[in-house]
Fold these 2 entries.
Entry 1:
Amino acid sequence: MPFGPTELIIVLVIVIILFGVGRVGKIGSELGSAIREFRKGVKGDDADKPK
């Protein structure tokens, strides 16, 4: 059964309490940049293949 909005809010509050707002923001920023780099890498592989 998937999580509802209430459960997600509770988990978010617990994470913020454990790590602090600054650290959660830093983790989110690093995760976003890692996803962007992964997508660029995947797109770059397609461009290098001969047709």
Note: DSSP finds two helices and no strands in the chain.
Entry 2:
Amino acid sequence: MMKLNDFKPLICFLLGAFAAAACILSYLSMQQPGGIEGLRVWGFGAEQTVDYEGLGRVLKDAAMNDSTVILTTLNEAWAEPNSILDLFLESFHIGEQTEQLLKNLVIVAMDPKAFDRCRTKHPHCYYLNIKGMNFAAEKRFMTRDYLEMMWRRLDFLRTVLELRHNFLFTDMDIMWFRSPFQHFSGNSNFMIASDSFNGNSSDLHNYPNNGFVYVKSCEQTIEFYKYWYLARKLYPGDHEQTVLNKMKKDSNFFTKFQLEIKFLDTAYFGGFCQPSKNLNKVCTMHANCCVGMANKLYDLRILLEDWKNYTAQPAEEKEQGGFTWRVPIKCKH
């Protein structure tokens, strides 16, 4: 006959698991996040060690007067010659008054070869050294490595906020044609692009795209990014963007953090999901709703050609409108 002592290991395990789950749920359900001042994002099990040595200096060198930096990430696959990196940088050079923003851009390399390539192309490069991880190859959408890279990126952005820098994060498959900063509301600490925009920048039914997001550093945004990263354990196997979409279904979600979220209008911040139709207004175009680097490259090259054709036209013809994108072609979803 089994004795009580025989069940002690099982009982201890169950109590420990219950306590851990209770801690997570208690944190995620807090009405006011301010009570966790100083809490670092903690791993769940064996997390890889991240080395942030030298990050503060790189950010300071690139920062605007208000401590804002533009950030993007790069891996070896996107760093190859004539690949995404070259198209991204070209867009700044051919855009309207965007070239001057390159001095505020920090390219975050996810592997050593990407870092080496970055340093041949741009003055502000940072190697995000995550021990035990290899992000060099192309990461197909929603694969395990892709998801890990997206969550690591999110945690890196939290660190930038903790270093008291505002940031505008941009995916590298976003082409820049005009400065976006005039379209950012001074009242909002968190502004994010949309895959599709319904016309109301405050409507939580807009579907967010975390590939283009402007965040001001403050206690509320820092705590929010901690919350967001922890929430990955409640939604295993989900993209960080999908997790955000699930969390915001609670109409009081951002109120809990004293945050006002604004969704950016696709008329200015478009993409292949919902293209910007007026080239006289467009600031950025994103190769979203597109799977595979080859497809992205094909359509982005055409996109840049279309922009060059537009800018070559006389001012009066531009004002009349009528210019449209030929893409998406390969990126039709």
Note: Residues 11 and 293 are 50 Å apart (CA to CA).
